[in-house]
Amino acid sequence: MQATVEQLSRILVFVDLTLPELERLQPHTQVQNYSQTEIVMQEGDRLPAKLYALLSGSLQVVKTAITGKETILRTLPPGEIFAAPALLGDGIAPATVTAECDSQILTVKRDALLEAIQQTPEIALRMLMVFNSRLQQLHETVHGLVSERAIVRLARLIQYSATRYGMSPVAEGQCLKEKLSYYQMARSIGITYEECVRLFKSLKPVMAYSRGGKITVHDAQKLAAIASGMINE
Fold first, then answer.
1. Which residue, 135, 153, 133, 157, is CA-closest to 144?
2. Record: fold of 5-145
């Protein structure tokens, strides 16, 4: 089905477009629903020339190595764009994207997007900012997997989640708004499930994990010191 103007305005790269600009894009859009665990795109798929954006729900982006090992590159919240090669590269999906919950994907045809960029160049600037941020995050992830200890990578992952999605005050400290399972964290930093559980036990004075992926940070200052590599736990 076609996206509404209100739905288009919820995509971060389109937030400042005027009503007439959104209405010009509207006929070239499509919204598709995906159920929890359904694959949106498989690594290696050939993609139509479109802008892909998450309208609602949550997506997990996973890269598979030649050895078969899977690494979670990121999770995407609503409003984010993804699958850059569909617009700017070879049109091949660089990773597998899966719906973490019931989600809606909004797409915009490439030709219509380019026409909108000609009229509003700020769209291209916002897209470049997003992709640049992704490249920096990927560089830090690769560097961490090669050179940093697992405990440092775990602390940095928790810090990244806190910065990206926020925290809520609780009696014991600060609780991450994003839920992170042991399995998800282990795959994100390149360790086993068992090692992730062990690391959390060793970090008990600093932060705690509870059922459902709830993470509570008891000592943010010490967590920052671990993330910087200054201290061991």
1. 153
2. Jelly Rolls (2.60.120)
